[in-house]
Every structure is written in structure tokens, then in C-alpha cells.
From TrEMBL:
Keywords: Membrane, Transmembrane, Transmembrane helix, Transport. GO terms for molecular function: transmembrane transporter activity. It is found in: Membrane. GO terms for cellular component: membrane. It is a multi-pass membrane protein. Its main location: membrane. The chain crosses the membrane at residues 65-86. This is Major facilitator superfamily (MFS) profile domain-containing protein.
Amino acid sequence: MGCYYVLYLYAGLQPMLYSWANLNAAGTAKRVVTTATLFVGQCIGKIVGPQLYFSWQAPYYHSGLTANIICWAALFVLVISMGAYLKLLNRRKAAQRVELGLPADLKDMSIMSLEEAAAYREELRASLAAQGKSEAALFD
């Protein structure tokens, strides 16, 4: 019954998933491919999913339940793998910034208030000026 109620949230999550995937892809071609892949995957799931539930397995539907558990386990593995991969990329980028004489960790100014962002930008400028670099070095 709990799963049934969780499905009510799916209608609100689906548009957010599409917009999140679209916003995290740089370039028009990548956005189109990302959105198309997401849509095709969803369509394939909606076609294959019902085919795994056989009336002769009622009320337990072992094949459908097994497929669901496998999909959730695969999703769990993908989430953990993606988290580890993103950590690796962040460490590489921090090391690259240090090699260039820049700060290893930069704060996200998009979540700061205007005053906090201005103060942080001045702090960065002063830190870079002390090393003889300009703010433009952050974007090279």
C-alpha cells in the first residue's frame, strides 16, 4: 500500500527529472540526446514492465518482483558508482587548480546571498592578487 501512495509522487517527480537532466547537460546536442535517452528508457520500461507479471503467478508475481528488485539493486549500484566517480573528478579538478596556483576548493556562489557572494569574490581576488594572478585565471 505504501508503494501505491509513493506512485502519486511520480507525477510530480517526472517533470523535475527531465528538467534536471536537461539542465545538467552542456550544449544543445547533449541536451537532446539526454532527454531522448531518458524518454526512450522510460518507454521501454513501460513496455517491458507489464510483460513480467503473469496471471498464473498471482498473488505474488515472483518474476515481476524479482525484476523490480534487480532494477532497484542496479539503481543503487549506479548511484554509488556515480557518487564515487564525481568525487574522483572533484579531486582531480582540485589538484589541477592547485597546480595552477589557484585555491583547491571554490565555494558555490550561486547559493550565496548577493552580499556573501561579493565578499567571497573580493576574498578570491585578494588571494589571487597575492599570488600575482587575476580572477580570469579561474576560468582558463
